[in-house]
Fold this protein.
Amino acid sequence: MNTPQAPAFGTGQQKRAYVASLVGTTIEWFDFFIYATSATLVFSSIFFPQLDSRVGLLASFGTFGVAFLARPVGGFVFGHLGDRIGRRATLIATLSIMGGSTGLIGLLPTWEQIGVWAPILLTILRFLQGVAIGGEWGGAVLMSVEHAPKNRIRFYGSAPQVASPLALVLSTTVMYFVARLPNEDLMSWGWRIPFLTGFVLVVVGMMIRLGVEETTDFSEVKKAGAVQRNPIGNVLRTMPGRVLAGIGLQAAVIVLFYLITTYMLTLATNVHGFTRGDTLIILLIAGTIDLFAMLGFAVLSDRFPARRMFLIGSVFTAVFAFPMFLLFDSGNMLLMTIAFTVALVVGHAPTYAVVSSLTSDLQRGRAVQRLRRGRLGRPDPDRRHGTRAARRVRPLVAAAGPADRDRGDLDHLGARGPAEGTGRRGAGR
């Protein structure tokens, strides 16, 4: 009698969880990125017109940077709540905060209308965007991973990673057409259109997320009455070094991405005289190729060592840094496009596709040690909840991913990894 084989990419519910994480996080990153592009193109003129053009641009980037201070707040708060009330509820909350704050930016009065209150309100709403994306990413990874089939752990964990370049392509496309408006229309009402879509997109994302059940992992823990009272505090108390290591992994990845997508494109406009449309075309080409490359690396990450992929991308980034700046300094649009595309595809894509799962791997050694000490006889709340909280505590990006179970460190001890459920009891089970 032949045993039916499980679908290669999971069951219907598992795929819905992957799609919900991908689409929901894409919507949040879309809202996040349209701010980045607007800060580069228009915000210095409408929110800081009293400042010199260069100082105004720095002030505009300052509001953009506020979100990076807010992201660890979101990671801590929603990482904690995710282990207290569930992943599904926190993801609905983060999506609502992001959609609401983005839509309200589109309704903001400018400096000419309310003076200094305009940039103050803009900064507050940007902070809320940062809180939302900080809480979103880690929860989306967990929602996807805890539904994942065993042979696709890293691929499922890459859903929020793939969402980032997908959102970049979508937001850049929208901003490209907006930037083609006459300058007067762009500065008066055109820039508002992408932000106002936040009100619509949040409804779309909510409909998708409401169709996905709470993960079995959290449901079992809640049923067993083993929900921790202070998961974040436990993580910081027991694993501060690993949290810092996770921060380092994330910082290594995002510096290159934002260097290209904001700072260098701004210089392309201000130094080399490129039009807004030209800079967005460069970003659109590089981002689209980066998207497909990341999908490829996400599939490969379940077959090849993730650490090796991350190392290759990191080394390439360091080696290619000087050639990239030389190509940029040429002022040639084709050479700049090639430079940015190569940097994103070979440097960013392989590292970003696996960084969430590598961060969660930092906890695996601790879990293995406990199992070897014979602690399989009772539930271990540290292992069940602390790992998940650790995945979400990161000051630059609150993202996390699956434990790497393919190498069998836990399997040969008779324990399941986090994506298969952590509510098991009984030694040797």
